[in-house]
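Running this now, will post back.
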Amino acid sequence: MMKKLIFVLTLITFVSARAQILEPVKWSTSIEKISENEYKLIATASIQDGWHLYSQNVPAGGPVSTQFSFEGNNKYLKKGNTKEEVGVTVDDPTFNMKVKYFESETSFVQHIKLKDKLPFTINSEVSYMVCDNSRCIMPEPAILNFDLK
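Update: finished.
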């Protein structure tokens, strides 16, 4: 009987701990072919209602910016920096400055030029901060995979 009670308490603790994990942003990837050897790598963030994801470009002393890092290899060349959508710029009372962020859904685009034949995969990591009206969190960086075929 005692073993069953311990098992049930452990299970309840585990389930309630899992319910506390916040994942207000879900990431997905897609690829758009521009020419024979140029592509766009598109990372889309789906953001839960009430939350916002900060821009890649925020003033010093502000929130943590969204940052992409792409695994380097000799199969492709990045062309320029990762582009982002227009977003919303507001006077943020939390950071006491103007900041740009995204709500609902946004996409980031990295232009590349191939140096090798397909297929291959480009791996990327995105770190970011998201806030709602009462808190800010920095989830574990998301791992993104772009499968070029």
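Helices lie at 2-19. More later if anyone needs it.
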